[in-house]
Amino acid sequence: MTGRGGDVTDKCTFQYFDSWLLMAEKRPTVAVIGLGPVGSILAAHLANNGETVIGEDVMTDLLRTIDRDGLKISGFTTLNARVSKTVNSIAELSEAGPEIIFISTKACILNAILPELKEILTPHMKIVSFQNGLGNEQLLADTLEVDTTYRVVVNYAGNKTSLGSTVMNWFQPPNYVGAYHRGTYVIDETTKVIAEMMTAAGLDTKEHADVKKVVWEKTILNSTLCSICAVTGQMMKEAMENFHTLKLAEKVLEEGLAVAKADGYDFGEEALDRFVAYLEKGGAHKPSMLIDVERRRPTEVDFMSGAVVLHGQKHNVPTPVNSVLTSILKGIESKYAKN
Questions:
Q1: CA-closest candidate to residue 300, choices 220, 218, 225, 226
Q2: What's the pTM value of the predicted model, to 2 decimals?
Q3: Is 244 domain-assigned?
Q4: Mean pLDDT of 245-264
Q5: Which pLDDT tens digit goes with each residue over 94-153?
Q6: pLDDT at position 125, please?
Q7: Are 56 and 83 in contact (CB under 8 A)?
Q8: First and final CA of the chain: distance in angstroms?
Q9: Is 212 exposed, middle or buried (CB count within 10 Å of its CB: 0-12, 13-18, 19+)?
Q10: What is the CATH number of the domain that holds 233?
């Protein structure tokens, strides 16, 4: 059962805590698995701030472009940064010996990459889910068979404009980072290092002793417009300005808030109004799930609306709207997955 947050010095003993004390004398080597928009923005900011960053992606033409021209970020901020090294597989990461590994791939491919990551895992590696979705950090811990994994709630977004180039559309700071240790959410020396590193790089990040609450909040918000826009083809602004999809969004939010409350996270009586107001600020922006559908790729629906449905079943909370949206999106995926 998931516990509530607390400070690691009170609740946990980490076998490799001393290694972090030694690491304080040098900056840790960082790996970013997946150089899509979110991963590229992270890697570019860290590299621009002098961190040793290893970028991993399966797209060889992307890696060649990054090696030649660096990572280019525009929009909310402007950067042109060079990572220390790029690699084409997770297996190659072991040669660089990263201490912190950020997984910034789509959550839907976690099951495909975790066996590879398990092959190179050492006791000193800290594994961080830098993704959307509910339950990622638990999946990491269970699959990798480790006591502690980490979760960052990312509060920025971007879109690729060309190979190696990303426009950062918005950033609503801070990001949040927490640790998942043996079923309990805590903060520890690693969350401190990650928060300080990201903040120093220009991505304001705070530690959160019960980061699952923030995960729930973002999952409810993402489940709403990601699913609706992916089904209707609307941009976020269009969905929130249309009477019919606005009412649909409100129903999705109501279900998510009810399930979160049953799971121990009550966002209060005014939560629906606050969440609607937040989504109304989305602007003329395509959520990532709509882009996935347009490009005929697997979506993260199982980690968003689908995860709300599963938690609803666990707590006997009805989620008919999330269930229908999930089923429609799974049907869309199955159609182009056969081609």
A1: 226
A2: 0.89
A3: yes
A4: 98
A5: 888 999 999 999 999 999 999 999 999 999 999 999 999 999 999 999 999 999 999 999
A6: 96
A7: no
A8: 41
A9: buried
A10: 1.10.1040.10
Domains of the chain: total: 2
Tokens of 275: 């969440």
Which residue, of 161, 178, 210, is where some domain finishes?
Answer: 210
The answer to whether the beta carbons of residues 112 and 87 sit under 8 Å apart is no
Check whether 22 has a pLDDT greater than 60: no
Angle at CA of residue 136, ends 300 and 97, nearest 5°: 110
Q: What angle do CA 130, 167, 217 make, to 5 degrees?
A: 40
Same-domain check for residues 313 and 186: no
Report helix angle 243-262 to 320-337, nearest 10.
Answer: 110
Cβ contacts of 237 within 8 Å, gap of 6 or more: 282, 283, 284, 285
Long-range Cβ pairs for the range 258-262 (8 Å, 24+): 258/312, 258/317, 259/308, 259/311, 259/312, 259/315, 259/317, 259/319, 260/216, 260/217, 260/220, 262/311, 262/312, 262/315, 262/316, 262/317
The pair of three-digit structure tokens given for residue 187, joined into one six-digit string:
């903060």
Q: What is the mean pLDDT of the chain?
A: 91
- The token pair at 320 is 């008919």
Across the range 41-66, mean pLDDT stands at: 97
Same domain, 250 and 306: yes
Round to whole Å and give the CA distance between 7 and 63: 40
With beta carbons less than 8 A apart as the criterion, state whether 201 and 171 touch: no
Residue type, 131: Q
